[in-house]
Write a structure and sequence with these properties.
Elements: E1 6-10, E2 12-13, E3 18-19, E4 24-28, H1 34-42, E5 44-48, E6 57-60, E7 64-69, E8 76-78, E9 84-86, E10 93-98, E11 101-104, E12 107-111, E13 117-123, E14 138-150, E15 155-156, E16 159-168, E17 179-189, E18 197-202, H2 205-238, E19 244-249, E20 252-261, E21 268-276, E22 294-298, E23 304-305
Parallel strand pairs: 1-18, 4-15
Antiparallel strand pairs: 1-4, 2-3, 5-12, 6-11, 6-18, 7-10, 7-17, 8-9, 12-13, 13-14, 14-15, 14-16, 16-17, 19-20, 19-23, 20-21, 21-22
Length: 307
């Protein structure tokens, strides 16, 4: 028997990276019946998160997957009310992943009867795509999935939230402007089918900024390490006579090949035979004015193997 997902929210010290001794246990609301799910969604209204609201700063410690029971085969259609509704009846399960990292919630849903607010965390890897809905009168695009968490009550909204853009066709036949941040309820979470623990920390704005700067430094270091490893791996091949190598300089893609290796240094002799303005990262037929073939000596680490 699977254990219901318990969501833990705790205050953490960014400097010491230590969790506080006390934690609020989070539980998923539900499981909803279809009637309860519709009623819960109807009571909600969406609002942008106020910049003075410090509850918008959240940190997720680990990746976690939530299981949801669907009444749709991966996508939705617009109903008479304008909300998206299931296209076909189904009881498929969908998995949503909340990735570890720092989040600044920009949208929240508020229960109009209780005042309870759910801050939306983006979710990924839903089983089944959500296709753009299009007919003679309505178009949708930019579909995103979210999970609503309430730092005040220790609860998670028992239904996934789909946020999207929408526009209507006007009586003139033209399309009206896109309306952003429209939303609808998606699949219902089933606590009995979901296992795992989600650790979420509420941060102050200062703690959030410190954590974000630290994450940026860590990500930059990881990128540099990956680039160094790639340079070590490809350096011997780029140093071989006749190897085709490329380099982007400003907005120009340079193409050349290795002609010789220096006996006194790690540099290679490169004949640059073509320059062009790239299209999607690949050479084009448009060359910069005045380009002439040239021979240079350069470090192979400054060049990449041509695709």
């Amino acid at each position: 028997m699977k254990t219901p997902l318990l969501l833990l929210i705790a205050m953490c010290s960014v400097a010491s990276n230590a969790w506080a001794s006390e934690a609020t246990r989070y539980v998923i609301e539900g499981p909803y019946s279809e009637r309860e799910a519709k009623s819960a969604i109807k009571r909600l209204s969406s609002d942008p998160v106020d910049q003075a609201d410090n509850r918008r700063f959240l940190s997720v410690a680990h990746d976690v997957k939530l299981q949801a029971r669907c009444k749709a085969e991966g996508w939705f259609k617009a109903g008479p009310s304008g909300l998206l509704k299931p296209k076909q009846e189904s009881t498929d399960l969908a998995s949503l992943r909340i990735a570890s990292g720092l989040y600044e919630a920009r949208l929240k849903l508020t229960d109009k009867s209780t005042g309870q607010s759910y801050y939306l965390l983006p979710a990924k890897e839903r089983d089944g795509d959500i296709a753009p809905q299009s007919n003679a009168a309505t178009q949708t695009r930019n579909h995103r999935l979210y999970v609503g968490v309430d730092p005040g009550s220790g609860k998670v909204l028992g239904r996934e939230i789909l946020v999207y853009d929408r526009r209507y066709q006007l009586l003139t036949g033209d399309w009206g402007p896109w309306q952003t941040d429209m939303w609808a309820g998606g699949c219902n979470f089933d606590p009995k089918l979901t296992t795992g623990t989600l650790l979420v920390s509420s941060l102050s704005e200062r703690e959030f900024d410190i954590a974000r700067q630290s994450a940026m430094v860590t990500n930059a270091r990881q990128r540099n390490d990956a680039m160094a490893a790639e340079a070590d791996r490809t350096r011997p091949q780029k140093s071989q006579i006749g190897t085709s190598i490329c380099k982007t300089q400003s907005d120009v893609l340079l193409e050349g090949f290795t002609e010789a290796r220096s006996p006194d240094s790690n540099k290679i002799q490169i004949r640059i035979w073509r320059a062009s303005f790239p299209e999607n990262g690949r050479p084009s037929r448009v060359s910069p004015p005045g380009f002439k073939e040239q021979i240079i000596w350069d470090d192979p680490d400054n060049w990449k193997l041509c695709q």
